Amino acid sequence: MKPIERHNARESALQAMYQWQVAGAPLADIEAEFLNEHITEQIDLAYFQELLHTIPTIIDELDELLTPHLKRPIRELDPVELAVLRIGVYELAKRPDIPYRIIINEALELTKKFGSIEGFKFVNGVLDQVARKLRAIEIAADKK
User: Fold this and answer.
1) How many CA atoms are closer than 13 Å to the CA of 76, on its beta-carbon side?
2) Which of 2, 74, 84, 86 has its CA 20 to 30 A from that of 98?
C-alpha cells in the first residue's frame, strides 16, 4: 500500500459518505457510481470499500464516541465535517495499525479540501480529544 493510494481511498470514501448522508442513496448504488466514474488506478480499493461499508453499520457506535466532544448536536454539523469525523473516529477506534497522527493529519487535509474554511480547526479539536481517549497509550509512548 502506497500512502497516496490510502489517501485517495479516504478521499473517495469521504465523497461517497457525504452522498450517502445527504442524499440517502443506497450504498451499493453509490459504490457502483464511484467504481465506474471516480475511482482511479492509484487507490486502495479494498480500503475504500471497507470505509464505505463498515462505517454505516457501526455509525451509532462512532457517533457515541464523538458526541461527548461536540458543542452542538450531531445533526447540526456540516455534512462534510461529519463524514470526516466519522472516518477519523472509525480509524482511531478500529484501525490500531494506523498511527493516530496520520489519521488526524489525513482528516485535516480532507477537511481543508472539502470542508468549510475554518472546519479543520473543529475537526482537529474533536479528533484530538477522541484520540486522547482511544489512543492514550500510543500518545503517551509518542511523548517519550
Assistant:
1) 5
2) 74
Joined together, the cell numbers standing for residue 133 give 481517549
What's the N-to-C CA distance of the chain in angstroms? 29
* Domain positions in the chain: 3-143
Question: In this predicted model, what pLDDT tens digit does every residue of 46-100 receive, in sequence order?
Answer: 999 999 999 999 999 999 999 999 999 999 999 999 999 999 999 999 999 999 9
CATH topology of domain 3-143: N-utilizing Substance Protein B Homolog; Chain A (1.10.940)
Residues 6+ apart with CB under 8 A from 51: 9, 10, 13, 17, 87, 90
Q: Kindly state the DSSP code that residue 57 receives in the 8-state scheme.
A: G
Q: Can you tell me which residue has the cell 482528516?
A: 107
If we measure between CA atoms, which residue out of 79, 33, 44, 66 comes closest to residue 134? 66
Q: What is the pTM of this model?
A: 0.95
- Taking the C-alpha atoms of residue 91 and residue 80, their distance in angstroms, rounded to an integer, is 17
Q: What is the DSSP letter of 117?
A: T
